[in-house]
Amino acid sequence: xxxxxxWGQAYSVLLDVGATADAFTLDSSTxxxxxxxxxxxDFVDATEYVLSVAIQRGRGSQTEQxxxxxxxxxxxxxxxxxxxxxxxxxxxxxxGNFDLAPRRAIxxxxxxxxxxxxxxxxxxxxYEMPNLSFASIIAADGLYExxxxxxxxxxxxxxxxxARVSAILDRTEVAYSxxxxxxxxxxxxxxxxxxxDNTNTLTALQAVAVAEDGRLFANRKNQIVFDPRIDxxxxxxxxxxxxxxxxxxxxxxIGVAYGQETLFNRVQVDVEGGTAAQVAADSTSQGKxxxxxxxxxxxxxxxxxxxxxxxxxxxDKYKEPVIRFNExxxxxxxxxxxxxxxxxxxxxxxxxxxxxxxxxxLPLTRTDSVFIESVNHDITTSDHRIxxxxxxxxxxxxxxxxxxxLDDVDVGLQ
Length: 414
Fold this sequence. Notes:
By secondary structure, this protein is of the alpha+beta class. Helices cover about 15% and strands about 35% of the residues. The chain contains seven helices and 26 strands. Strands 1, 2, 3, 4, 5, 6, 7, 8, 16, 17, 21, 22, 23 and 24 form a 14-stranded mixed sheet that branches. A three-stranded mixed sheet has the order 11-15-14. The protein has a three-stranded mixed sheet with strand order 19-18-20, covered by helices on one side. α2 packs antiparallel against α3. It is globular, with a radius of gyration of 24 Å. The C terminus is likely disordered.
């Protein structure tokens, strides 16, 4: 059953054991209990034995691609009576070929909010003599599943980046569930690309994300998400951190970055099958900071002009270093229960406002709108710390006749 920790939030760690787990068993199940005739689920609730949970999802920079998200669970195997031990044939979770094993599904929930959904990659048991034993479970999200598959040769015709993502996921050798997709319509067009045998599926999808300058990641529900080009947007923040209002989420730590990790004043895009590299450069920035190159090879765009447009779009975002909040952390202990639903629902791609107040210097308050680019949870019996990695967002407000300034770069037409 779910375990409620000292700050009042209930948590569940659910494991797929490959066999019906809640079937009513004569002389074992309790009348009026939770077991039902024939059973209804393959998941068992392992929460009572869990000591800690660590979840890592996202990317370190907006110029990087997303790698598989992971979840690490430490459980007390001795307290469970060796239920986790795959060598224990007496375990209730042992059913021959249907047992707790690699590729079985796993879910971590806070209340009803999914923090992580994925599949087990490793189940290791460690012993401390004479009789202590611990289970270490490592799970990964859908990106890891895609990284373990390869395409057979095929040559799709020119199509939008979003259609290319769907075409790859639809391949019989990939067969990623349509129920686990959230594919937004792209703005760029992929060209006719001949994918050879044994092309890694995740690598192919990441190349499409580069062509779009969007995001391709697995969200907290393990849906494969494809976001369109990260550009100027009319999006508004769905949560605020650090302010004084009652709906502001408290900040425990905050990082400010001002460096060359997102400074690029020369962008080179090599289009798949193209005859010349497409380069966008800013001589003014190069004169101040030297040449800083961001380059991409074999980008599956349909024309050299599209490659040139992509290069220019990236140059416009990164030609000057930006002072930005790059990480914040909070905890459920500090938030108060009214804010838990908001905090727990935040995911990669969401826009949030971050405010930092200073005691000296000017200005005394700074507020930025930023994208969430990574989400990390560290849960123990004493704390639930959440860290958000952040990326720069370029937000626009709607142009209002007789009010907005014509040369205001933060105003646009909807």
